[in-house]
Amino acid sequence: MRFPVPRPAQIVRILIDYRPALRARTGAGFWIAGLVEALATLDAPHSPRVTIFSSSWKDRLGSVAPSGVAAMDRRVPGRLLNWLWHRREWPPIEQFTGEPFDVVHSPSPLLIPSRTAARLVTIHDLDFLDHPERSVREIRRDYADLARAHARRADAVVVSSETTADEVIRRLNVAPQRLTVCPVGAPPWSPRPPSSTGRHILFVGTLGARKNVGGLITAYTALRAGRKDAPPLVLAGEPGPDPIPELEAQGEDGVIRRLDYVQPTELRKLYESAVMLVLPSFDEGFGIPVLEAMTVGVPVVVSNRGSLPEVVGEAGVIVDPEDTHALAAAMANLLDDHERYARLVKAGVAQATRFRWARSATALLGAYHEAYKRRRGEAPDADRS
């Protein structure tokens, strides 16, 4: 279903928890950083004051804070604060800020305690309900137990895809009028020249079970068994919380090359030198690498799970992630069918233009206003438990 974009209106003080963006920006950190930067440059009447908040014992906010926003950096261990907020709902955020805010936005499914502010949560996917074993310890401990109640108590819920919005409505019993979809925006990259030829098959993402890295390695091994000239496979991403036996069993022949987290300045070059991107995840709240690849004109092979079909549209090859034979065949087809390859390049570049940070920031500003009205009793709220 489609979700209307709320109309932005006047609110004054917004506080956003920026902690996911402190270190390597993947997933939620990438999303919240992009939205904050877009909010700071949004040409909107009565633009509110945006403040980003961080708490960490080691990492300081000053080095990563975008221009155009205020910053509050507190030297408090993040895990300790999360435990207090999640399990004790204390202390209120005002105890750290020393001033009130109209809106407080959590980048996770769990609320930030506040005395007076309208509160929003963010839900990118519900994998933590279905497969908690694929998550880090804190998520396993808190999210499955608390997310449903927090989503219903929140003044608004922000998601990054319509697929996730539908899931939140169906499984968490959140009313549609309290949901706002704010997708990831495409990077400001130009497509590579049509004559460009890639040197490797690329995967970008956390190297974990959820991303189906094991299935990708199995499919690639089958591909290479049938054609020794297949490009090498490059796996770019940090290790996940769970071991991947297929990855650990790989030798040092250079056919499968493993990189760690790739800095944004180098990531574009990695895409531009790729034959294709393959993201066969078992679940995705969005699929940022897919959008990045399409932007530079790299065809994509993705799974039919989560939000990936929504993001790709008609511009990619979609397969069952559990069918490694189909995945291998999809990669082989893109290597052989040059006409189809060219069509997907063109379609992907066009599809990527649909995703803009400014559009998502406008929708988010509208969600803040609706949450503020709901908090003040100026909007109907019959669904609140």
Mean pLDDT: 93
When the domains are counted, the total is 2
Strand content: 15-25%
- Label the CATH architecture of the largest domain: 3-Layer(aba) Sandwich
The CATH class of the largest domain? Alpha Beta
Kindly describe this structure.
The chain is of the alpha/beta class. The chain folds into two domains: 13-184 and 356-375, Rossmann fold (3-Layer(aba) Sandwich), CATH 3.40.50.2000; 200-352, Rossmann fold (3-Layer(aba) Sandwich), CATH 3.40.50.2000. It has helices at residues 28-41, 78-88, 94-97, 127-130, 137-153, 162-172, 213-226, 245-248, 264-272, 288-296, 308-312, 324-336, 338-352, 357-375; strands at 13-17, 49-55, 70-74, 103-105, 118-123, 156-159, 179-181, 200-204, 233-236, 256-259, 274-279, 300-303, 317-319. The strands form two sheets. The protein has a seven-stranded parallel β-sheet, with helices on both faces. The chain has a six-stranded parallel β-sheet with strand order 10-9-8-11-12-13, with helices on both faces. Strand 12, helix 11 (308-312) and strand 13 (317-319) form a beta-alpha-beta unit. Helix 1 crosses helix 14 and helix 7 packs across helix 12 (324-336). The two termini are 24 Å apart.
